[in-house]
Amino acid sequence: MTEFPDHPFWDFSLEVYMTPGVGEACLELQERHGLDVNLLLFCIWLGASGRGTLAKAEVEELISAVRAWHDDVVRALRAVRTRMKGGMPPAPDALAESLRQRVQKIEIDCEHTEQLMLAACVDRAADDSLSGDDRAADAGANAARYFDGLGRTLSDADRSCLSVMLGVVFPDLSSARISELSARP
């Protein structure tokens, strides 16, 4: 069994992703844009944790740093797991489901590895003097830069997904402020 080092980004990702509505919002964005949810969460975490905003060049470096791992490992495992859903005749259903669950565990471990790779790319101390609104603005700006780096134009549905995510991360902000931050991309 692999022992992963503790990291606040992984803890953040688990907490946020497991909140009702966030997983679905992330998957919608992933399906529509082919984006890397780990990268989107990282961009939001950097801002939320007080580590500031990313420059366009930094976003491009992050995308490049994990592209091969994400495409060749994470997405490949996801494709296998998805293909196995609902059985793989003539394999016995119970066996196929057990194997699918093991593939899912490996997929999650590979995503954990990717998150550690991302965290190693941007080593910044948190600025504890930043207000919640400043952190939210940084998180929104980082998300916007990620979408810009992908060359994506966001629809109202995409902005709604970002609002769900930012609303969970910044529960003390008004829904109007969350909508404003989500409209930036």
What can you see in these coordinates?
This protein has eight helices and no strands. The chain is 71% helix and 0% strand. The chain has one domain (8-182). It is globular and about 55 Å long. The protein is mainly alpha-helical and 185 residues long.
Distance between the first and last residues' Cα: 40 Å
Low-confidence segments: none
Principal-axis shape equals: globular
Query: How many strand elements?
Result: 0
Q: How much is the radius of gyration in Å?
A: 17 Å
Arithmetic mean of pLDDT: 94
List strands and helices in order, with pairings.
Elements: H1 8-17, H2 22-33, H3 37-48, H4 56-84, H5 93-121, H6 132-149, H7 156-169, H8 175-182
Quick take:
This protein is mainly alpha-helical. It has helices spanning 8-17, 22-33, 37-48, 56-84, 93-121, 132-149, 156-169, 175-182. 31% of the residues are buried.
Label this structure with key terms.
185 residues; mainly alpha; 71% helix
